[in-house]
């Protein structure tokens, strides 16, 4: 083949970055593929706004079908985002025998099984390196060099917006709302930051990582998801005093009883490398049976890193095309019939250590009442701090527990919160001491 032609759906920030990269590094890409890779068509609803890049006449179109049905286009790059019309476009591209490259973690987290099955029937590739970790080559590593490992855990800091906010809260002692407002002004957070700060974006990415690591289908609704909007600078200070940092952590674990898949604020020891991942950076840490612990670190979002990941997938597919290979591997790195449905453990069955903060009136007998309820639910106390009053007659009481079952911790807090000595809803943050 003398030339490989690709089509792009979505000419926003990432789409612009991909177009720039393919043009700027055209000679390098051709040298690595063995043939030129040409961007033949770009489809977007807005083809008049200046993106800072010039494209040849006739490349831009508002009609997605000019990409999806063009017999010369071998690879369709989907960068629209969201569920619709992205899903319909991806399925139509596959039905027309085209390979697909996408950065759309939300689409794959909810509709991946249908898309992968369609690709298997047509013998085409679906690659999505840019869907997790931006430019960090984590998915290709899982499908490639680390594929021979059984993985027991995956931990990830997967959202730059949340990590930026938590870094500022930790270093400067400022409250969530103030940092969020500043992050929006700087462009690190969207005008509507819900998907980021409530953990949804992270959960989409975790769904993909759990599938890749453990070879299982994941129902996105089964992933326990909490965000950082309710975190207080008070909790971050106490965490530091106990030798921890708080991160929004994606957690995947597999054992004989099933799979844990959860996203929530988590206290991790300051000595762990993940604790040093600050600002808008991402990190993903795996443990394989032969490779042991491995951590990937880098910029998890942005035009250039994400465009780099998209282009890497394009090159991977282009090399296959050059050698006459239609579909070298299934999207999740497992044979199509080898992906199984493993049970996702309900959150109540999880066992771990907990940070508990109570706001109580300053009077005798408070500690005895709280510790009595904890003991009733078989929750033992590792350490406890009672600080000076926060405001008025309130006093914060902080308890670090030994291993306890989440179901019982929740029941204990519900009971304690009914006491008239408790002035605010009690606060729970999970602790992960062992991140191997």
UniProtKB/TrEMBL annotation:
The active site is at 205 (proton donor). It catalyses: L-homoserine + NADP(+) = L-aspartate 4-semialdehyde + NADPH + H(+). NADP(+) binds at residues 9-16. Gene3D superfamilies: 3.30.70.260, Dihydrodipicolinate Reductase, domain 2 (3.30.360.10), NAD(P)-binding Rossmann-like Domain (3.40.50.720). CDD domains: ACT_HSDH-Hom (cd04881). GO terms for biological process: methionine biosynthetic process; threonine biosynthetic process. It is an enzyme of class 1 (oxidoreductase). Signal peptide: none annotated. GO terms for molecular function: homoserine dehydrogenase activity; NADP binding. Coiled coil: none annotated. Residues 355-430 form the ACT domain. Its EC number is 1.1.1.3. NADPH binds at residue 105. Keywords: Amino-acid biosynthesis, Methionine biosynthesis, NADP, Oxidoreductase, Threonine biosynthesis. Pathway: Amino-acid biosynthesis; L-threonine biosynthesis; L-threonine from L-aspartate: step 3/5; Amino-acid biosynthesis; L-methionine biosynthesis via de novo pathway; L-homoserine from L-aspartate: step 3/3. L-homoserine binds at residue 190. SUPFAM superfamilies: ACT-like, Glyceraldehyde-3-phosphate dehydrogenase-like, C-terminal domain, NAD(P)-binding Rossmann-fold domains. Pfam families: ACT, Homoserine_dh, NAD_binding_3. Belongs to the homoserine dehydrogenase family. NCBIfam families: PRK06349.1. This is Homoserine dehydrogenase.
């Amino acid at each position: 083949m003398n030339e490989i032609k690709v089509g792009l759906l979505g000419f926003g920030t990432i789409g612009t970055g991909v177009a720039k990269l393919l043009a700027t590094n055209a000679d390098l890409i051709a040298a690595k593929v063995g043939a030129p890779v040409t961007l033949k068509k770009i489809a977007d609803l807005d083809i008049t706004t200046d993106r800072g890049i010039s494209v040849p006449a006739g490349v831009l179109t508002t009609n997605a079908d000019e990409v999806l049905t063009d017999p010369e286009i071998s690879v369709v790059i989907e960068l629209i985002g969201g569920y619709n019309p992205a899903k319909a476009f991806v399925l139509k591209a596959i039905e027309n025998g085209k390979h697909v490259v996408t950065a759309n973690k939300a689409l794959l987290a909810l509709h991946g099984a249908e898309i992968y099955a369609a690709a298997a029937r047509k013998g085409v590739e679906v690659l999505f390196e840019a869907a997790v970790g931006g430019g960090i080559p984590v998915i290709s590593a899982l499908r490639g060099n680390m594929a021979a490992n059984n993985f027991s855990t995956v931990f990830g800091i997967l959202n730059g917006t949340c990590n930026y906010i938590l870094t500022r809260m930790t270093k400067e002692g400022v409250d969530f709302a103030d940092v969020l407002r500043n992050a929006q002004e700087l462009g690190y957070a969207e005008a509507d930051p819900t998907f980021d700060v409530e953990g949804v974006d992270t959960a989409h990415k975790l769904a993909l990582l759990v599938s890749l690591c453990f070879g299982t289908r994941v129902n996105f609704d089964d992933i326990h998801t909490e965000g950082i909007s309710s975190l207080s600078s008070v909790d971050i200070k106490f965490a530091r005093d106990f030798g921890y940092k708080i991160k929004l952590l994606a957690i995947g674990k597999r054992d004989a009883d099933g799979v844990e898949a959860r996203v929530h604020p988590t206290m991790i020891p300051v000595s762990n490398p993940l604790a040093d991942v600050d600002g808008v950076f991402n990190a993903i840490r795996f443990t394989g049976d032969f490779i042991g612990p491995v951590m990937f670190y880098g910029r998890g979002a942005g035009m250039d890193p994400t465009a780099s990941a998209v282009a890497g997938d394009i090159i991977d597919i282009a090399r296959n095309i050059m050698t006459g290979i239609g579909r070298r591997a299934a999207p999740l790195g497992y044979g199509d019939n080898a992906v199984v449905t493993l049970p996702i453990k309900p959150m109540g069955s999880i066992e771990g250590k907990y940070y508990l903060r109570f706001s109580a009136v300053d009077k005798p007998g408070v500690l005895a009442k709280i510790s009595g309820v904890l003991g009733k639910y078989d929750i033992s106390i590792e350490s406890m701090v009672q600080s000076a009053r926060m405001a008025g007659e309130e006093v914060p009481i902080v308890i670090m527990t030994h291993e306890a079952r989440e179901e019982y911790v929740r029941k204990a807090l519900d009971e304690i919160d009914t006491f008239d000595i408790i002035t605010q809803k009690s606060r729970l943050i999970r602790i992960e001491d062992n991140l191997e």
